[in-house]
Amino acid sequence: MNRTQRAAGAVVGSAVGDALGAPYEFGPAGAFSERFPPAAGPGGMRAGGGWDAGEATDDTQMAVHLAESLLERGGLDLPDVFARFRRWAADDPKDIGLQTEDVLTNGMPWDLAAAVHFQVNLRAAGNGSLMRAAGSAVYFAPAGPAATMDAARRIAALTHGDRAAWEGTAVLHELVRVALADGDPLDALPATLALVDAEHRERYAAVLAPDWHPGLATEPNGAVWPCLGSAVWALRGTSSFPDALRAAVDVGGDTDTVAAVTGALAGARYGFDAIPAHWTEPLHVPLPGGGGRVLRLPELLSLAERLGEGPPSR
Ligand SMILES: [Mg+2]
């Protein structure tokens, strides 16, 4: 499978997961399979929770803003990414994470806003930097593991002052990078964990272990550790894109984000062609702060293709 297939799989797969999981957010485990029994096929997009069928949420909206910044600025321009996030937050998105909203509206400059929030609240390990990672993971992949994880940490730090969120986001970027290079992200877990900051390694090793499952989570999956752990668990326990996504949404809780993260991984692993067409057909990404645009599959594929070219070589 070529790299373009995998890059498109990651970008579109994450958006599909976001839209697929959105109607089940904060719901119980097993809700997707109750609505769409596994024997009847992959199941469909449906409306719910204020979302239209196939409508992507803040996860994908922020991922698109980040991706467009990378492409238009020709690299990682942190103040520009932050400014785009702020424009998005000010344009009344249907959903925005509590922590992200506070950081983007507290009036502090880009390099202080998240740190100040963390200093005041002492908790900033939400999954909000994990959820928007598909495009940036594709973009930085050609630069190799160190540059990929470094960029991931910096992007996460824009909204999340807790290093736990940086490390989880860095792990996800690296696993997507491995998949894009035809590697198996599950085989890459030990090597990736070795690149995690020592103070955070043990906690990630626990949720990424082969015998971990969402029932062992010690906090809701709106937190970065069980969110990443659940996505890797969904990938490990299944052998197709639709089955991985079903498993992710069936975890319950923060279903759109767990499925968005799973979709990035499964999309990179199985490629764009593995994503059911009846999931991509209704997919659409309204983009607050984006001039009234609504992105659909052709725009997302174009974004994935341009991101796949990576940072301009110096
Ligand atoms: Mg969301």
UniProtKB/TrEMBL annotation:
Keywords: Hydrolase, Magnesium, Metal-binding
GO molecular function (one): metal ion binding
SUPFAM superfamilies in the cross-refs: ADP-ribosylglycohydrolase
Region named Disordered: 35-56
Residues annotated to bind Mg(2+): 57-59, 254, 256-257
Cofactor: Mg(2+)
Cofactor descriptive note: Binds 2 magnesium ions per subunit.
InterPro entries registered for this protein in UniProt: ADP-ribosylglycohydrolase, Ribosyl_crysJ1, Ribosyl_crysJ1_sf
Pfam family, one: ADP_ribosyl_GH
Keyword Transmembrane part of the UniProt annotation: no
Compositional bias per record (Gly residues), positions renumbered to this chain: 41-52
Family label: Belongs to the ADP-ribosylglycohydrolase family.
Name the UniProt record assigns to this protein: Ribosylglycohydrolase
Organism the protein comes from: Kitasatospora indigofera
